[in-house]
Amino acid sequence: MLENNNLLFAFGITMFAGLSTVVGSLFACYAQQTNRKFLSAALGLSAGVMIYVSMIEIFPEARASLSLVYGDVKGYWLTTIAFFAGIALIAIIDMLVPSADNPHEIQDPHDNTDSAGLLRIGLFSALAVAIHNFPEGLATFVSAMEDPKLGLSIAIAIAIHNLPEGIAISCPIYFATGNRKKAVLYSLLSGLSEPIGALAGYFLLSSFLNEAMFGITFAGVAGIMVYISLDELLPTAERYGEHHLAILGLVLGMAVMALSLLLFA
Question: What is the pLDDT at residue 73?
């Protein structure tokens, strides 16, 4: 029963993280203007949470699991290799998305005044977000299955990270069609790839998820989260606001994560 509860909880918070793209979409379609400074600080905070938890919590847990199976030295080597393999995986996914259609390359969706091709940009942005959200869903789900509190922290960080993605999807579609419902719908569909990633990970890994496989997966998850933070969150935070504001959010996110881990130690 406890395992089933963990499964439902892990899937639920993964769904929450994925559907935050819809919140960003609604914000873009109905709000008069975006609070850029708040968004910048929030993205920096999200990056701080993800970097800190990856390096301080997830990587050591992965190393401990692999060391139990392979010994300290070999376990450490495998953890490090899996960590960089996770970075390589998400980097390859990132490279497969053309930069012109990648929502993380769009500096400000509201600034695009050329109506020609707006719909195409929005649709490709939705596809790009769906591709990016798939491994994020797996990361959230695996973390929550191992440690619900840790999974919840990661889900909140990814939810903040998904807000500007919803904006990047909905703005071009809304300005091209004038249809708010269509803009929100595409944000919803792209966000659903996150829980789909969780389900795919569960069904693919559950049949042979032992201590070694858990350690490798967890180390890869840490790599994915560090890459997302450095390649997506921090650059986007700086584009939406100021450098020092983004760094302040980063440090605050680390401090909040550190405090939460200390309180529940």
Answer: 96
Could you tell me if 253 and 47 are in contact, meaning their C-beta atoms sit under 8 angstroms apart? yes
The two structure tokens encoding residue 42: 């929030």
| Distance from C-alpha of 54 to C-alpha of 31, rounded to nearest angstrom | 34
pLDDT > 50? residue 2: no
User: How far apart are alpha carbons 133 and 168 in whole angstroms?
Assistant: 14
Nearest alpha carbon to residue 233 among 12, 54, 30? 54
The per-residue pLDDT for range 181-240, each reduced to its tens digit, is: 888 888 888 888 888 888 877 777 666 667 788 788 889 888 988 888 888 778 877 877
Smallest Cα–Cα separation from 123: which of 189, 181, 180?
189
Q: Token match 């405090």: residue?
A: 259
- DSSP state letter for 21: H
Asked whether the predicted pLDDT for residue 166 surpasses 50, the reply is: yes
Main-chain phi, psi angles of 32, to 5 degrees:
-75, -35
pTM strictly above 0.70: no
Is the Cβ–Cβ distance between 197 and 137 less than 8 Å?
Answer: yes
